[in-house]
């Protein structure tokens, strides 16, 4: 199965902080929070396109926040305005914001913040507390506060906010729903916490992907209904559906 892509031009590609970039494309895009695109700015190598979460969408632009972790994202980081890029998407199921209401906690760790800012902006009828955890102070939380009621930060080195893990701050019993994205170990802890408080929790899984369109079965995760494809049935899953790796 071949990817169906469009060729777009880079509007902007800026370094947000060390190893983190935000790439923006001009145009109109209909995207649900939590969905992703396959991005490709090369012909032969690397073989695979890179799955990158949608960071934000407005009437004129779409942006992607990504970490440089390998050859593909290194090439993406070198793109300049008007360079061509191939994109496939939107892909995945995303968060169903129409079914989320009341008091909501968004919990993210590291680059897991990427899809959660757009999500926060779309929960217009909710009271949203945004929890973000990092190893050290960064700039990826800039502009979050305008979309949420409270911003709660933690850093492992104590450079800002609580010194420790973001899960130290979370009290799921205070919320109608918890929405989570970040390192797998963090998400699994949040799921366990929500199970104890009987709070609904939705997580955006981060799995290595090959095709990104459901054909290769590389990105499957264990659920109570069998293995499901993170790129197709996910990346957003109800936490109670997943079988955790204790």
TrEMBL record:
Keyword Electron transport: yes
Source organism per UniProt: Clostridium neuense
UniProt similarity note: Belongs to the PyrK family.
Quaternary structure note: Heterotetramer of 2 PyrK and 2 PyrD type B subunits.
InterPro entries in the cross-refs: Cyt_c3_hydrogenase_gsu (IPR012165), Dihydroorotate_DH_ele_sf (IPR037117), Dihydroorotate_DH_Fe-S-bd (IPR019480), Dihydroorotate_DHASE_ETsu (IPR023455), FAD-bd_FR_type (IPR017927), FNR_nucleotide-bd (IPR039261), PyrK_electron_transfer (IPR050353), Riboflavin_synthase-like_b-brl (IPR017938)
Cofactors: [2Fe-2S] cluster; FAD
Residues that hold [2Fe-2S] cluster according to the record: 211, 216, 219, 231
Name used for this protein in its record: Dihydroorotate dehydrogenase B (NAD(+)), electron transfer subunit
The keyword Transferase belongs to this UniProt entry's keyword annotation: no
One Pfam family linked to the record: DHODB_Fe-S_bind
Pathway linked to the protein: Pyrimidine metabolism; UMP biosynthesis via de novo pathway; orotate from (S)-dihydroorotate (NAD(+) route): step 1/1
HAMAP family: DHODB_Fe_S_bind
Cofactor: how bound: Binds 1 [2Fe-2S] cluster per subunit.
Organism phylogeny: Bacteria, Bacillati, Bacillota, Clostridia, Eubacteriales
Domain FAD-binding FR-type: 3-97
Role this protein plays: Responsible for channeling the electrons from the oxidation of dihydroorotate from the FMN redox center in the PyrD type B subunit to the ultimate electron acceptor NAD(+).
Keywords tagged on the record: 2Fe-2S, Electron transport, FAD, Flavoprotein, Iron, Iron-sulfur, Metal-binding, Pyrimidine biosynthesis, Transport
Residues holding FAD: 50-53, 72-73
């Amino acid at each position: 199965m071949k990817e169906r892509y469009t060729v777009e031009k880079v509007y902007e590609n800026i370094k947000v902080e060390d190893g983190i970039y935000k790439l923006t494309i001009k145009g109109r895009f209909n995207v649900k929070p939590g969905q992703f695109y396959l991005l490709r700015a090369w012909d032969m190598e690397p073989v695979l396109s890179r799955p990158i979460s949608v960071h934000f969408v407005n009437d004129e632009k779409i942006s992607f926040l990504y970490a440089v972790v390998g050859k593909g994202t290194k090439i993406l980081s070198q793109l300049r305005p008007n360079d061509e890029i191939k994109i496939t998407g939107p892909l995945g199921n995303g968060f169903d914001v129409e079914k989320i209401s009341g008091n909501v906690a968004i919990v993210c760790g590291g680059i897991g913040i990427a899809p959660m800012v757009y999500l926060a902006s779309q929960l217009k009828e909710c009271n949203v507390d945004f929890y973000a955890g990092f190893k050290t102070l960064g700039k990826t939380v800039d502009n979050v506060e305008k979309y949420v009621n409270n911003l709660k930060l933690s850093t492992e080195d104590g450079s800002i906010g609580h010194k420790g893990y973001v899960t130290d701050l979370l009290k799921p019993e205070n919320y109608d729903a918890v929405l989570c994205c970040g390192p797998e170990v963090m998400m699994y802890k949040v799921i366990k916490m929500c199970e104890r408080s009987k709070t609904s929790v939705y997580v955006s899984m981060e799995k290595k992907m090959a095709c990104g369109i459901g054909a290769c079965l590389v990105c499957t995760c264990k659920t109570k209904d069998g293995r499901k494809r993170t790129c197709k049935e996910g990346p957003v899953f109800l936490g109670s559906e997943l079988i955790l790796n204790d």
